[in-house]
Amino acid sequence: QVNVVESGGGSVQAGASLRLSCAASGSIRQLNAVDWSRLAPGKQRELLAGITSAGTTNYAASVKGRFTISRDNAKNTVYLQMTSLKPEDTAVYYCDATVITGRGVPGVYRGYGTQVTVSS
DSSP 3-state assignment of 13? Predict the structure, then answer.
């Protein structure tokens, strides 16, 4: 079994920073690509950033230059450093982790998300 837990959200003022974590645990042979996305009320899910197992990153235009994705392979954890937060960044943030399980089966796992609220 594989578990993915997002954490690090909170309520902050505009201009503040937060670092989100996406931790994968359980029967994991390899953590491959991980993507961060967010879902705000009344809006569609927005893909924000992704990182491959080799560390190649990509970003949505809306967060490029403000958000940085990184990973610690030893901890099976991916981070999303968010700076210069804006009220429009308010959403529930999720990560999608592509995993090769201990049995060699690939799959994509998502946690319950972490709430980020930015006030003006």
Answer: strand
